[in-house]
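INFO batch 0412 | record 1 of 1 | parsing
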Amino acid sequence: MKYLTQFIFLLFSISVNSNELPMLSDLTSLKWDNRIILVNDVQNEESILAAFEKNIIEINDRDIVWLIIKGDHAFSNYSGTLSEDLLNNTRDRYKMREGQVILIGKDGDVKSWQDRLDLEGIFLEIDAMPMRQREMQN
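INFO prediction complete | emitting tokens
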């Protein structure tokens, strides 16, 4: 049941963002187009997936691509294919601890490190960014 829920949510996320995108092997290719939420090796990935699903409108409005890393697997709302190198490239670059959450801005810089997912806090932080302020005005 756990994997079925994840699979259905993944299919839903892909269908929402059904543009044909290149294979994602490094997060730098998302720079200037997307903000990124990285979630590393959480024990409760089902509740994280549920939080992302519940907030899909807010996530899409803020151009967020999220990635949950769990062992040798990744779950994401990225509509293209995830490369096998993506996990290693991401782990090498960010050196995340278990359960850690990182917010990366459109400029590619790390904006915050958290010990748990707080989407409301992340949304507030994003909404205070100058680039997001301009997006909301347009």
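INFO post-check: DSSP finds six helices and five strands in the chain.
INFO record closed
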